[in-house]
Design brief:
Blueprint: H1 2-23, E1 24-27, E2 31-37, E3 40-46, E4 49-52, E5 58-64, E6 68-78, E7 84-95, H2 98-103, H3 108-126, H4 129-134, H5 136-151, E8 156-167, H6 170-212, H7 214-229, H8 242-252, H9 261-276, H10 281-285, H11 324-336
Amino acid sequence: MVEELVVAGIGAASAVVVYTMAAAKVVKQYERGVVFRLGRLRGGIRGPGFTMIIPAVDRLRKVNMQIVTMPVPAQEGITRDNVTVRVDAVVYFRVIDAANAIIEVEDYRFAVSQMAQTSLRSIIGKSDLDDLLSNREKLNQGLELMIDSPAIGWGVQIDRVEIKDVSLPEAMKRSMARQAEADRERRARVINADAELQASKKLAEAAGVMSKEPAALQLRLLQTVVAVAAEKNSTLVLPFPVELLRFLERAQQPAGQQPTQSVQGAQSARGEQGVQGESRPEELARPKEPALEPGVAPAVPAGVDPTVAGAPADAAVEEPAEGPAAEQAVGRRTAEEPPPVVPLPPAA
C-alpha cells in the first residue's frame, strides 16, 4: 500500500513538473509577449520577466521592440530633369504596438521593406539631380513621411530614413567634373583679378609717396638687392642710376658755383670742333676743278671763246702766234696764271 502511494506521489510530482515547464515562459527585457488563447487575442500584453500560460490552450508570441536597421536595395529611376540614377537608403524603425504588429500585418519587416523601396522610387521621380546630391535632408524627411503614414497602422514607428548613395552614369560624372573645374577656374580668375586690382592701388599709392622723395626709390632698390642677394645662388647685375651721380655731383659743388672747368672745356672743345668741321653748302655744291699739268692748256667748253675763258673781263686779248714758240708761251702763261676764283655770296 505504501509503495503504491509513493509511486502515485512521484507520478503526480512528475506531471506537475512537466506541466509547469510547459506553462512557464520567460520574456526578455527588449521583448513583449502576445498571448493567443484558442486563437483569440487575450487581453494584456505580457511584459518582460516570468509568465505562465496554459499549455495546449495558449500560444505565446514574442515581439522584438528594438530599433531595426533595414537597408533598402538600390533603386534605379529617372529624376525630374531626365537623369538616370541609382539610389539606395537605410530605414530605422521600431515596433511600438506588439499586438498590431502581429495582427494587422503578416510580416511587418517585409511590409516596411517594400514600402521603403516604393517610396524611394517615388522620391527619385519627383526630385531633381541637384536635390538628390545636395538637399538630402529635405528628401529624407519626405521619404520618412511617406513610409511612416501606413506603418503607423501596423504598430511600427519609423525613426529616420537616410539616403546612403547616389550612383550616376560615367558620362554624367565627367560632365559634372568639367562643370566643377570650370567654376573653380572662374573663381580663381576672379580672385586673382581682385588681388591684382588691390595690388595696383597699393603700388600707385607707393609710387605717389616715392615721387615726393627720390631717395626712397634708391632705398627700395637697395632693399630689393639685399633680398635677392640673400639666396647666394645667382649673379646679380645692379644698374647704377644716373640720378645718384647727379645727386653726388651736386653734393660736391659749393652753393652758387658754376659747373667745373673740365665740363666747360669739354663743351668748348666740342663746340670748336663742330665749327671747324662744318662745311658751307656752297663749297660742297661747287665742282672741283682738276689740277693742270705743266705745259697743258685747260680744256675750254664748246661754244666759249678760248681767249675769254679763264681770264678777267678787262684783260687784253692777244692773238696767238704761230709756231712752237707761241705754243710754249701759251702753256707757260696758263701755268703761271691760274683762272680766277669767283667769290660766292656769304652763307645765310
